[in-house]
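User: Structure please.
Assistant: Input sequence and predicted structure:
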Amino acid sequence: MALAGKWTITPETARMLQLGHPWVIADGYTRRWPVGNPGQVVELTDEEGRFMATALLDPQERIVARVLSLKRMRLDSAWLKQRLESAFRLRRIHADLGDTDAYRLVNAEGDGLPGLTVDRYGNYLMIQIYCGGWQPHLKMVTRLLQEMLNPTGIYDKARPRITRDLEASGDTRSYGRLLAGVPAPERLAVRENGLTFLVSLEKGLNTGLFLDQRRNRRDLMQRAPGKRVLNLFACTGAFSVAAAAADARLVTSVDASPGYTELARGNFAANRLNHKRHEFIVGDCLDVLGSLAQHKKCYDIILMDPPSFSTTSRSRFTTRGGTSDLVTASLPLLSDGGLMITSSNHQKVDIADYLKELRRGALQAGSDLQVISLYGQPEDFPYPVTFPEGRYLKYAVCVKTR
């Protein structure tokens, strides 16, 4: 039940809530709120004391509250079950999941459960909370998922506050925790687009398969037959496997992490692809691009899906500004008429700014790029039209015309 107390918001925040945005950002008003605890359910009011929304409190964070409903409500099993059922129904009706058993079941704000995601990996579920307000309600979430879906096991995976360097290094410490059911194998085989991928529900900051790129990997499979493909920031090789399985002539996978590169070889083996027919290079992507250029290498498709931030012993990469340098260094290796495919999951870089990065890179290289497709995340990653932050994934397919 919502607790008594004055949780007053600014007129600007009230207008944002009326427009459907689900976040309350810390400001001068929120700093005068009563002392509260993460997970507390509160009623937000405007300066006149009028009810605005019911929200989940996370008082120590930048997003101090997330809107659960524009109506008065209780965060109980009945309410949560209704939200979960709605999320599952959307996937059944709208998501293209042929020969796929790894996908998102609950997409936080996109499914009216801000700060909470649930992913399916085969017969297992993975819960992640991006808002400390869900921690006190985790047992209820777990129990309902057990009752509704009867999975073999349910995990959650904690994300440390400082993750950028850890992600870049391919950190393999255990961040996953079994909440219910039977433990998963250390490398769990799942299906995506008819291919097999090995994921870890316990070790590493991520499972090794980024589910939001499923449709984009399927698109690559249609473009790759007979082509020479260079995959930068290959991570565990999901895009590389998709290209090789589609009969690409050569797939060259580049990543700074030796651990990720070994996992990529494992994914090739899981699909009975001869990894010796293809190339795996461990190194900083910009350094490798320079070396490949010196050796006069040429590719028909160059794909780059870098993390928003990464660090190696030689360089630091950030999406904002770094993408143009990568494009500039890559274009001399791309055949005329070849495809430059670039992707970013940086929430704070919108599509217009991202395309400016591609333009800057092309101009610096003295080339032209023609955008033929621009994709985002698939149907199991929905977002409200009132929440532009939910449209974070950008995947541009461009033709080199000069």
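The chain has ten helices and 21 strands.
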